[in-house]
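Hi R.,

Here's the input for the guanosine-5'-triphosphate complex you asked about:
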Amino acid sequence: MPVIQWFPGHMAKAKRVLQENAPLVDVILEIVDARCPQASSNPDLMKLVAHKVRIKVLNKADLADGATTRGWMEHFRRQGEIAVALDAVKGTGAREVIGAIRDAFAPKLAEWVAKGRKPRPARAMAVGIPNVGKSSVINRLVGARKAIVGDKPGVTRGKQWVRIGGDIELLDMPGILVPKFEDQWDGVLLAAIGSIKDEVFDHMEVVGQLLPYFWEHSREALTERLGLSEVVDDLGVNIEQIGRHRGLLRAGGAVEMDKVAGLVLREFREGRLGRISLERAGD
Ligand SMILES: Nc1nc2c(ncn2[C@@H]2O[C@H](COP(=O)(O)OP(=O)(O)OP(=O)(O)O)[C@@H](O)[C@H]2O)c(=O)[nH]1
Ligand SMILES: [Mg+2]
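And here is the predicted structure with guanosine-5'-triphosphate in place:
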């Protein structure tokens, strides 16, 4: 797999977006992928906003293994972090996210009111690496009650806000973070969850690294959907078996290897290979 490089420009832009917007909000919703909450976060960038209340949103929880997600939630809570699991498509967990925003803002609000100032809505923004569901989270939280709050002069000049209920305002533009690579396996995970552009990694290499893991964690689905009887060391043999099972054949009968790799990635991303978590708390 080619080493994936982030252009310094992307990193600088992510920093700028965070530093420009953090002062406008009370709460930062850090959206991560529940299947790999560690690989899909960027602790270096989050350090820049360490002075803000942060709510970790483990999104796509419907695609992750439930027990593993519960393990992550405990892990984060033990570290004193606020963490909520969400399925932004179906809305499971949306109420908890809204509740967490309210709870996080409550002390500040109480302080304001004690000083005789008028209560104001809690302000929040969503941030996260590509494809973790930032836009889906915003849409889900805002729901049918979507209301553009509009430009506000002063501190929030030029920003669009949407209202959630009466007491929360959400910046309607999420901050896009660049992923942080600790090692090659992180790259594989980020490719698997669609956070790295499909054009810049070797699909076959990534699938080759994922298949043994999938086999270990979701054997039944791999047998059923991909027709695998086992996963062997020779990737070509596995790919061949999947290709025949799914009929990805050229005229003449040879398996279309590249298409098979694409299919495996797609099926994983759509949750068709079962609920597979890629990282476990404590590993
Ligand atoms: N199954 C499932 N799919 C989700 C969930 N949230 C988002 N998706 C899907 O994930 C894909 C990416 O979602 P987006 O909301 O566009 O993600 P994003 O972070 O805004 O992506 P970028 O703007 O490209 O960085 C879409 O196909 C969504 O339908 C979820 O909770 N569960
Ligand atoms: Mg988006």
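One thing worth noting: The first strand starts at residue 27 and ends at 33.

Cheers,
M.
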